[in-house]
Amino acid sequence: MFVIKQQYLYFFFINCIDLTVTIRSMRLRFFILFCLCPCISWCQQKIIDSLENIVQSKTIAVRDKIIPLSELALYKKNDTLLSIKNGEQAIALAKQQNDPQYEVYAYSNMGLVYSLLGQVNKTYRFIDLTTQAIEDTSKKDAQAFGYNSIGLMKLNLGDKEGLEAIYTSLSYADRENNKLIAYNYTILANYYLADIENAEKYSKLAVEKALKSKDPHTLCYAYSIRGVRYLAEFERTKEYKLLDQALVNLKNAFEVYEQNPGYVRNSSCINIIANLLYTYQFKNELKPDSENLESVRFYLAKALAMPMEENEDFVINRRMIEIKAEMIYGNYREAEKLFLALIPIVSTYPKQFRNKYELNHQLAQLYDKMGEYQKSIQSYKIAFQYYQQYYDDKYTKIGQQQHAKFEITKKEIEFKRKQNLLYVGLGVITLLLILFIAFIINFIKHKKEEIRLLEKLKEEESKSLEIAKINAELYAHLKAEEAHRLQKEVLAKGIQVTHKNNILQHLQQNIQNTTALNKRELVNIIKTEQRLDKNFEEFENIIKKTHPEFYSRLQEHAAQKLTALDLKYCVYIFMKMPSKEMSDLLHVELKTIRMNKYRLKLKFKLTKSDNLEAFIQNII
Questions:
Q1: In 330-372, which residue ranges form alpha helices assigned H by DSSP?
Q2: Has this prediction a pTM greater than 0.85?
Q3: What is the mean pLDDT of residues 230-258?
Q4: Residues 106, 107, 112, CA angle at the centre, nearest 5°?
């Protein structure tokens, strides 16, 4: 999978104004603004070219082009139409996949583009879509990335709820994902610049993770925010040693830039230099030293050697470096000229109220140093007008944010309401279905019971009094038995009853068909049947004790349900009773015995060569 370059951190910092308002010094507010702008910025054209090569390649799978496309949307932010086009292409490809993690990346980056453009409603729409995609995926890296992006989108629009998303991103991030963790710590360090303890903790963690990531962009950002952290503390405490610590980190950031040409954009370096000059200005004000001036000349030369870019922030920051250098040298008139030349340029930029306010405010402070108080008052008035416009614009966005949140919340409430109604409806339907099934089961059970009783009644009516008595005794016996008596015992009793019925019917036929009944023959038949009956009961008990699964095994192996007569034959065969004896016992011809055995072979799916007797003997 394509590795994500997380330079998008820029979006949060360009509008993190609330933090700077808590800093009392206007100078410090300005250099923080410079640091938080494109200081954390984009890499050079090399990375853009590599992304475009991936997108245009015919050998790379479509799903592997989704993240590069969404990143191109961010890199080409200055070309709004092209940026949105790339973002929409990434979203379209992500939707074609069966993996929601791709939607997380596509929606996240598109939302960041809209947050940069200041389009509140569209930004919150993509925050909502990103959240849904996060819930749909189980990939922790995608979830961590998504929450990081949501945090940046919200913080970029001045919504402090984004901080919660950053912490959530940290909780989801894999321990080895040092780049993402470092970016999260960098965001937190910037957010807590006015809180020395938290700023120290998070900026330190950011540098530690950035060093482990071995990524120049990440390391440059981490060193930069740690340098600004010391400058922020210096503004509050005026401890000189803090400036040295700030210089160490800002120089490290500059060194990372110089050691990785083409992979860190010049605007990153221009902002690092701006902060270095502010640091040297403070040092020179407290302890004038020629080395400070030499360092200023060195970094000024570095800034002027960079090719000019059309980027608004680059233009402002480069001019401010020149202005700051002239102020450090004490050339206030030259600084004034540069200010007056820069202000009209800034005025051409759309919605640059914050920058216009800062420039006029700094110019007013310069006039204070020059003793030109009338010009100072006029510049303060202009600065205040821009300040008012800035806050008007800001609170307009806040209103749009609240409206967007309200719409999202309203949709969530409506969705939950419908969801609850659906659950209630499903619960009611389920309950009714259970009751209906219970009713049907009970109805069928009663019907079956009625049918069984009717059949039993008809059977009893058709039999003799003796048969009725036997059936009544069997029914009473079954009724008294415990519920866990196995069906095989009932089947065994049924076989015995059927046999007795056959004998009684045989006797009845003999009585009806024979005018003179041989008493001795009748006695012999009864004795024989009593002996067999006793043997059958003994054998039944033996089967139940030694082979309790005999009947169920027979039913399992049969292709068709075995009748009571079939089971009787199986018992006799299991007893190894000869066919002749079966014929005499059942009062049927030998061919009937052979025919029944043949039918049993068919029911057990035995071939002609298979031995039925051996099969039944081995059934257990």
A1: 332-347, 353-370
A2: no
A3: 92
A4: 100
